[in-house]
Amino acid sequence: MPATVVVGTQWGDEGKGKVTDLIARDMSMVVRYQGGHNAGHTLVVDGESFALQLVPSGVLYEHVTPVIGNGVVVDPFVLLEEVATLESKGVDCSRLKVSGNAHLILPYHQELDMLTERYLGKNKLGTTKRGIGPTYADKATRVGIRVQDLLDEKIFREKLEAVLGDKNTVLTRVYNRLPTDPAELADRVLTEVVPRLAPYVSDTVGLVHDALDGDREVLFEGAQATFLDLDHGTYPFVTSSNPVAGGACTGAGVGPRHIQRVVGIAKAYITRVGAGPFPTELHDEDGDTLVDRGHEFGTNTGRRRRPGWFDAVMMRQAVRLNSLSEVAITKLDILDTFDSLKVCVAYDVGGERHEHLPYHQSDLHAAKPIYEELPGWRTDLTSARSRSDLPPEAVDYLGFLEEQIRAPVSLVGVGPGRDQFVDFGS
Ligand code: IMP
Predict the structure, then answer these.
(1) Which of 54, 53, 46, 44 shows the shortest CA–CA distance to 21?
(2) Buried (b) or exposed (e) across 352-375, using 16+ Cβ within 10 A?
(3) How far apart are CA 37 and CA 113, in angstroms?
(4) What is the bridge-based pairing of β-strands 65-68 and 97-99?
């Protein structure tokens, strides 16, 4: 059975959780393939809000097996707390599977993330301080500790002792901090984490292939987004993993031939958290309106997101990088109050017009948006459910986006609720 990937196409916070939840309805397995608890999905079901960081969105459906793939970095304390919160709200998490090959985020990773950011001062990246970068760095330098190491006490203690030798030198000599005692941390993890986490640990690659071989629908759920991708994003203002659709292959253990459908999620405008170039960024009242109406504050960190107009140049690149077969536009209703709307159709870089994203970062930093202006609809869209419920200006706006990004728009979100979307493709 061919698989589907859901991927963010901007700088994150596109509302992937809601679209994933909608698509997950028809799936038997939902697999997270990268990132960690730097992600934050909010789902509103029957008026109740669920904030998910690590557990895949499909957990809310009883027929879905939620899987945390090998490409994810897992803070076991956060994961267990999230499971406990979900269970206290009546959500059964017993079907959850966690890859034994996923790497663990431990307290020293978070401490180093925080200290590095502080050390960088005004040059900081604006990370979520969740230990994501230091954990992926340990994975790449082959000193990381994996979920499966928890199942062998001797190995876990040995690996922790070895890696902390190095980390403690940095913590004490570079940052003047107290060292982490390996035996104390190992005791804490082995008593507080292992008995509760062990039942979820699995060979997730085997499970994914059993599902695919058994003709069951599998959804790969990306966190963060295309322009936060370590290879293809606005480096160095990126996360440390590969959110692009190709990341699903390495982060879950499938070859590209299994993936047939790639759904890109884009907000009807753009936001970004943290530092980095942002050609269509708004510093005016329109930006404040987007932030206020869109509640653009981080689910996890509470940070105000930077707002901007929709950028078709970035989206064209996202279509290429992910082989998008369709695009879901979210939060269209946030634009309801504008008299007119701008869409960036090209960049001006030193007097030269660029239809595609300039590859050199100096050009991207210098890029000035070239806008086309479209009329707003000044109508409340939150109760629209079909294409015919949309005012002509909204249909024209979406049609213009399709033309500009060269990919079809399938779904359109018009509110936070599970049912608040328009099937635009039909
Ligand atoms: P890190 O992933 O915590 O290392 O942060 C690196 C960059 O990615 C920072 O600019 C963060 O603000 C951004 N980032 C990480 N996760 C998310 C997310 O889920 N949504 C939006 N931005 C994110």
Answers:
(1) 44
(2) eebeebbeeeebbeebebebeebe
(3) 14
(4) parallel
Task: Please give the model's pTM, rounded to 2 decimal places.
Answer: 0.96
**Max intra-chain CA distance, the chain:** 66
**Cα–Cα distance list, 318 to 225, 264, 345, 405 (Å):** 9, 8, 14, 9
List, for residues 208-229, the tens digit of each pLDDT value: 999 999 999 999 999 999 999 9
pLDDT at residue 2, rounded to an integer: 87
pLDDT at 45 over 90: no
Both tokens of 321, joined, read 């990088």
Q: Which two tokens stand for residue 145?
A: 């500790």
pLDDT at 369: 98
CA–centroid distance, residue 260 to ligand 1 (Å):
28
Establish how many alpha carbons lie within 13 A of residue 211's alpha carbon, considering only the half-sphere containing its beta carbon: 27
Q: What is the atom index within ligand 1 of the atom nearest the CA of 228?
A: 8
Q: Could you report the per-residue pLDDT of 115-163, keeping only the tens digit for each?
A: 999 999 999 999 999 999 999 999 999 999 999 999 999 999 999 999 9
Q: Please check whether residue 66 is in contact with residue 59, taking contact to mean a CB–CB distance below 8 angstroms.
A: yes
Is position 41 annotated as part of the catalytic site? yes
Kindly provide the residue ranges of all beta strands, DSSP E only, lying in 46-110, ordered along the sequence: 48-52, 65-68, 73-74, 97-99, 103-104
SS3 assignment for 218-257: EEEECCCCHHHCCCCCCCCCCCCCCCCCCHHHHHHCCCHH
Residue 117: strand, helix, or coil:
helix
356 is catalytic: no
Under 8 Å between Cβ of 12 and 19: no
CB atoms within 10 A of CB 329: 28
The active-site residue out of 13, 21, 113, 149 is 13
Task: Give the distance (Å) from ligand 1 centre to CA of residue 392.
Answer: 36
Task: Name the residue with the closest Cα to ligand 1, atom 16.
Answer: 38
Q: Tell me the residue type at 422.
A: V
- Measured by CA distance, the residue closest to atom 9 of ligand 1 is 127
Instruction: Look over the chain and give the mean of its residue pLDDT values, rounded to a whole number.
Output: 95
Q: Please give the angle made by the CA atoms of 293, 55 and 4, to the nearest 5 degrees.
A: 85
